[in-house]
Write a structure and sequence with these properties.
Elements (H helix, E strand, L loop, with lengths): L1 H15 L8 E16 L6 E16 L11 E13 L24 E12 H4 L1 E12 L2 E13 L4 E10 L19 E3 L12 E3 L5 E9 L5 E12 L3 E2 L12 E2 L3 E15 L3 E10 L4 E14 L2 E10 L17 E11 L4 E14 L22 E16 L2 E12 L2 E14 L3 E14 L7 E15 L2 E12 L3 E15 L1
Parallel strand pairs: 8-9
Antiparallel strand pairs: 1-2, 1-26, 2-3, 3-4, 4-5, 5-6, 6-7, 7-10, 10-11, 11-14, 12-13, 14-15, 15-16, 16-17, 17-18, 18-19, 19-20, 20-21, 21-22, 22-23, 23-24, 24-25, 25-26
């Protein structure tokens, strides 16, 4: 059924697209990926078996209204579908009567429309552009998707304005063919049609569309400056259970009505000068939590033609959807400060290194925390604590005409433990059609609060591919990872990518 729907939608794209002119250019791109892997919990059970087949099919039509002329109105259409089947699932994982293995919302062959929109540019003397359909928005507020319309107005004063509105893309609504990847963190939503009211109450109902709207102001026409101010608000409408347990009469307290899912405003800026360097910064204010959820500043200095020095400062405070229970739990932010250096000897090889510190705020004195081998005791919460980790990385690349090798290593060490390791990647092509790759990886970590979770992990990946013709490749990879916690893990990945132009 999913495959028939998949084929129907791509055909519908052709039928519903405006009448194509003889000058229209069409491109069809398809990918197929097969993954086979099995792994067990560190505790032995459960064992998860996956046999995943992921397929995407994309259509891109340009010059719908005729041959494109610079700064003249033009129309284009873009769409990509994704089918993510998993034939390794157990029936018990989709059976509500099996409480031990049941996973709410799990589907064997979910189909989603990644994007599908009609785009127009350069209307009204080049000042107006628009998008209509499912689309992405990427800015300081993150990577986000919605169904609706966006209008973009270009002005002669180095400023563009955007206004958009519609419904946030969410999973659980079969007719919408959507995914929950772009909704707020901290919630688990989906279709509860076949579930009783009190069964899995943390799995929230998703039966109502979530209205969303926003605007943005963005600089344009200034080569050394790019800045964008963005605002977005999303509204929840589904009724949710707000009591974890039933009342004496067996009832559960529910809350409905329109309420905030997320509401944020963000600003990002980039200044650059080709002979000196660049400065980047961003900040996001969360109206629901009434605080700055993240802000960052980065500086690049071109010391010489081959040398770049830099510094980064980043603060992040986790925020969640307005319906998430995690809003009621204590959580704190973390700050990362890094220094960077890069040396580019030539197009053949370069090296880079970074180092700095990452700090975490804690609830109470972290020195009063107990390890898993000690008796459980509440930590001292009379004061706010602070933990710091020292971190660094070193990497380098060497490239030749038909291949290259890359080395990456990192380390993070602090009072809570450490995480150190590195990997080497080698790639080589042969006769312009064949390619091969090998990846070796070795990492070691320990957790001072859970000594039994310490481990050293080694893995390798061996892969190869063959290009049947231009822009078409068949590939396969074998991965083997091992450590004392999970034993041996294996994964095989097969891919097929091809593009057809009219």
């Amino acid at each position: 059924m999913a495959r028939r729907t998949f084929a129907f939608l791509i055909g519908l794209a052709f039928l519903t697209c405006p009448e194509l002119s003889e000058a229209a250019q069409a491109e069809v791109n398809a990918t197929s990926d097969a993954q086979f892997y099995t792994y067990s919990s560190p505790y032995g059970e459960p064992t998860v078996r996956r046999r995943r087949y992921t397929q995407t099919l994309a259509l891109h039509v340009t010059d719908i209204t005729g041959d494109r002329v610079a700064f003249e109105p033009d129309l284009s259409f873009r769409m990509r579908l994704r089918l993510d089947s998993d034939f390794g699932q157990l029936n018990a994982e989709r059976d509500p009567n099996d409480a031990g293995r049941y996973v709410p919302g799990l589907e064997q062959s979910p189909l989603d429309v990644m994007y599908a929109y009609l785009e127009g540019n350069h209307y009204f003397d080049g000042h107006l552009g628009f998008r209509l359909g499912r689309q992405y928005v990427t800015d300081a507020l993150g990577w986000w998707s919605f169904d609706g319309g966006l209008v973009r107005l270009s002005t002669p004063v180095y400023l563009d304005a955007e206004v958009y509105g519609g419904y946030e893309q969410r999973g659980g609504l079969p007719a919408m063919l959507g995914t929950s990847r772009y909704s707020g963190d901290g919630v688990y939503r989906g279709d509860r049609e076949d579930l009783e009211l009190g069964f899995y109450p943390h799995y929230l109902e998703e039966s109502q569309l979530a209205p969303a709207y926003g605007f943005a102001l963005e600089s344009s026409g200034v080569h050394f400056l790019h800045a964008r101010l963005s605002y977005r608000k999303v509204i929840n409408r589904d009724a949710v259970i707000v009591s974890p347990f039933r009342a004496p009469d067996g009832s559960l307290l529910k809350m409905g009505g329109d309420r905030v899912s997320s509401e944020r405003i963000g600003y990002s800026m980039r200044l650059s000068e080709s002979s000196l360097g660049g400065l980047r910064g961003s900040a996001v204010y969360d109206f629901y939590n009434q605080l700055f959820s993240d802000y960052a500043l980065a500086l690049d200095w071109y010391v010489a033609d081959k040398v770049t020095l830099g510094a980064d400062y980043d603060y992040y405070y986790p925020t969640f959807d307005g319906d998430s229970i995690w809003n009621w739990f204590t959580h704190s932010g973390m700050t990362t400060m890094l220094g960077r250096a890069e040396y580019r000897h030539s197009r053949s090889w370069d090296v880079a290194a970074s180092g700095g510190v990452r700090t975490f705020q804690t609830e109470g004195d972290s020195g009063s925390y107990r390890t898993e081998s000690e008796a459980l005791q509440d930590p001292d919460r009379s004061q706010t604590g602070m933990l710091s980790d020292v971190m660094g990385s070193v990497g380098g690349r060497y490239r030749w005409a038909d291949g290259g090798v890359e080395l990456r290593s990192m380390g993070e060490i602090g009072r809570r433990g450490h995480r150190v390791g590195g990997d080497v990647t080698t790639r080589q092509s042969f006769e312009g059609r064949y390619d091969a790759s090998v990846i070796l990886s070795l990492y070691d970590w320990d957790d001072a609060l859970r000594p039994s979770r310490d481990a050293t992990s080694f893995s390798y990946v061996v892969g190869g591919g063959y290009s049947l013709f231009e822009r078409t490749r068949v590939g396969v990879e074998w991965e083997h990872a091992m450590n004392r916690l999970v034993g041996q893990r294996f994964r095989m990945l097969a891919t097929l990518d091809f593009t057809v132009l009219n």
